Amino acid sequence: MDELDNSFARAERIYIEADALVAVGDFTAAIARYDEVINLLPYSAVAFYDRGLAHQKMGDFDCAILDYTEAIQRNPHDADSFNNRGLAFASLGQYDNALTDYAEAIRLAPHDAKAFHNRGLTLSTLGDDEQAVVDYSIAIKLNPKDAPVIYNRGVSYANLSSFADAIQDFTRSLQFDADSFMWRGRLFKAIGRTDEARADFEEAERLRSIADT
After folding, report:
1. C-alpha 194: how far from its chain's center?
2. Could you read off the pLDDT of 41-93 as tens digits, one per residue?
3. Local structure of 172: helix, strand or coil
4. What span, in angstroms and rounded, lies between the C-alpha atoms of 12 and 2?
5. What is the value of pTM for the model shown?
6. Residue 132, C-beta contacts closer than 8 angstroms, at least 6 positions apart
7. Which of 58, 54, 115 is nearest to 90 (CA)?
8. Does residue 118 have a pLDDT over 50?
9. Cα 192 from Cα 163, distance rounded (Å)
10. Distance between CA atoms of 122 and 147, rounded to whole angstroms?
11. Which of 45, 75, 83, 89 could pair with 105 as two cysteines, CB 3.0-4.6 Å apart?
């Protein structure tokens, strides 16, 4: 077995350890293992991507961006690297950079709902709920059962005072958490449907009390 084969074999063993550490939430130890993999295989886009993901899960968005950038330099056709770097930029309030990365992720993978959803979130944060609804709607068309996207579109509809559309979206996403009941209750109250509002507020409170136990 030559030196390159040895490097691959060692990297594979270390990678398994790193992935196991990520699975149990020990991101610091996982990053140390990914460091070893990168030392062995410095051309591996996947290793930089996975280390970036571990940094991101720890909240170290600057390091995540550096790793995703290294991954992109090695594989500029990976939509996930652009999408996740966009998320890291957005977490730092660098919204223009985030939007640029989401656009590239969408160009590379136009049938993947994730970047449409994430771009919608950033647009909504910037106050452009009208365009956010467009992106959420595309994401929902691509993945009709993605309740968080439906919920977020409902929030944007509510911000646009499109109450009927918002209520419809919150109703579709009710099974997931108390927030949908709370938002729908507020909208029912705003349009004078007080009995339905009260019922939704009570259900939201019930779900939150269950979650706290």
Report:
1. 35
2. 999 999 999 999 999 999 999 999 999 999 999 999 999 999 999 999 999 99
3. helix
4. 16
5. 0.86
6. 120, 121, 123, 124, 152, 153, 156
7. 115
8. yes
9. 12
10. 18
11. 83
